[in-house]
Amino acid sequence: MSYYINLSILSNNLNNQQKRAERRKLLSAEARRILSLCEGRPITEDNIAREAAGRPFFSNIDVQCRDTDFNISHSGDLTVVSLVKGKNLRTGCDVELVRPRLRAKEIAEGFFSAPEREYIESHGRFDEARFYRIWTLKECFLKLRGFSVLDMAGVPSFISGEGAYTFGSAGVSPVSFDLYELTGNGDEHYMLATAIEGIEEQPEIRWFSQDSLVCKSIAKINAAASPAETVRPKI
To answer: Is 1 helix (H, G, I), strand (E, B) or coil?
Structure first.
């Protein structure tokens, strides 16, 4: 079994509004480059299919990739590909550039639990970094299960009433989340959440770009796959 978090940051910053579409193309191409290097063969757009909610998988299922599951996320100039090799294993990831977000408070009110909202505002103000911690974890869960952002309200709480990260009791099929904060020399600040379902395992982080960011572990959350009321979204 192998579990990897593969990262690459573009050296040419394309945050210009007019170049947003170009940046997305470059980030998507970088994800395919990473997959190609991981698989040891060219991976093109034709090799990647998507489920109804957008979750990617290899379209040409063969002996080489039958037991490979992966997930892709990108934000700002950063591309992330979580990848696991092993039978009946599944992975998810979400990365977000930490920046002021319109309607962040409204999003928290509509989709976060009361303990999560208290965690975000525990210092007497709305803490954007903490908001992105919860947001990336919830997005990661959705992408792990192949749901869409429209199902956000059904994602379980990652904060207990005591203020600690929690996710229910142990289950027959473990789900393990890792939360990271990534920073650079400039204004680069990202939150990254990754998950693996089927086994509790620590991922190996690998960089595929010349530049890299400092990656700091924030939390590890071991979750249960059942009962339904603690993990499975009520959709």
So the answer is: coil
For the beta carbon of residue 211, count every other beta carbon within 10 angstroms: 13
Instruction: Tokens for 213, please give them.
Output: 């960011």
As a whole number of angstroms, the longest Cα–Cα distance in the chain is 54
How far is it, in rounded angstroms, from Cα 36 to Cα 52? 24
How many C-beta atoms lie closer than 10 Å to residue 73's C-beta? Answer: 23
Residue 226: is it exposed, middle or buried by C-beta count within 10 angstroms (0-12/13-18/19+)?
middle
| Cβ–Cβ < 8 Å for 131, 113 | no
Summarised one tens digit per residue, pLDDT across range 71-103 is: 999 999 999 999 999 988 999 999 999 998 889
Strand order across the 214-223 sheet? 90-97, 189-197, 175-183, 214-223
Task: Please give the model's pTM, rounded to 2 decimal places.
Answer: 0.88
Q: What is the Cα–Cα distance from 196 to 191, expressed in whole angstroms? A: 17
The pair of structure tokens assigned to 131 is 């908001």
- pLDDT tens sequence across 185-200: 888 999 999 999 988 8
Give the H/E segment covering residue 72: strand 68-75
